[in-house]
């Protein structure tokens, strides 16, 4: 074989290594573990050994795809590109610490209990995704690029570890109907004075660490239902918004009856020295994204995670370490949820006791009236 021929072969191999998605590469379709009657495809046990394997992967043709019990360090844009005619994607019960969303065909994306620490959106307008649900993850910040998801009508970020939210990032979400921020660790929600979420009807902010919420409920002129319990509201703020809630005919779900300080209109509120100390701690909340999109206290980037997978042995050790971290986080979250459920149970029992006493009194009064008439 001549020198030129050897050079051509070498260059061809080099190009294939650099671009595993070239036309000469053979795609490998991932099979469904099982298929339900409504054509929902369940995939289990996915684990890529290298980035090249990811580029060569092709998901089965299914409108609804559920990936579970898998380990994917970074669900990157090229994996979204590998989805064939999928409109509804669910990632659950897996180890997927990083997701970078980019898709022109998905209508719904759910990320449930995957150890997600970093979520990003490709910086281009998306008018297809209308439902985004991220639940049960150690996610502490959302990116400003969420503003590119212009078609969202449901945004559920409940049961994570969010600490700060900038509502101004949702200004472009003209179709947003439901915003669920409940059961996080949110100590501050920034609201620009000009913000108007014109179509927002359901807003859940319960079970956080909020003191106040500026321009509430004026930033949501169509708001009809709200949950606010289990926060650290300022008594002054509660007194101010009570009238606005009443005049706007907003239904407030949930009520608190046992408070360490003051209960006002069904909400616990706080004032005095204890609250001033708590407010000082709120000012230290630093993890989150700046207006320009820089992660202030970032978790390891997906590229860094992938870079550690350079050999089979290191790969296994890394995955085991990640799995241990996720299990530890799940345990801590379960402990926190247990305490929360116990408080809710006590409040529910006391509320039921009050209701029974009221009904008993009303029944006795009605019986007395009947006897008096006869």
UniProtKB/TrEMBL annotation:
> By its UniProt entry, which Gene3D superfamilies does this protein fall under?
Ribonuclease Inhibitor
Q: Which Pfam families match?
A: LRR_8
Alphabetically ordered keywords of this record: Coiled coil, Leucine-rich repeat, Repeat, Signal
The record's listing under SMART domains reads: LRR_TYP
InterPro entries assigned: Leu-rich_rpt (IPR001611), Leu-rich_rpt_typical-subtyp (IPR003591), LRR_dom_sf (IPR032675), LRR_TM_domain-containing (IPR050541)
Record has Repeat as a keyword = yes
Which PROSITE patterns does the record cross-reference, listed alphabetically? LRR
List GO terms (cellular component aspect).
Answer: plasma membrane
Query: Origin, by domain of life?
Result: Eukaryota
Residue ranges of coiled coil:
324-369
Segment forming the signal sequence: 1-23
Q: SUPFAM superfamilies, alphabetically?
A: L domain-like
The protein depicted here goes by the name Leucine rich immune protein (Short)
State the organism named in the record: Anopheles epiroticus
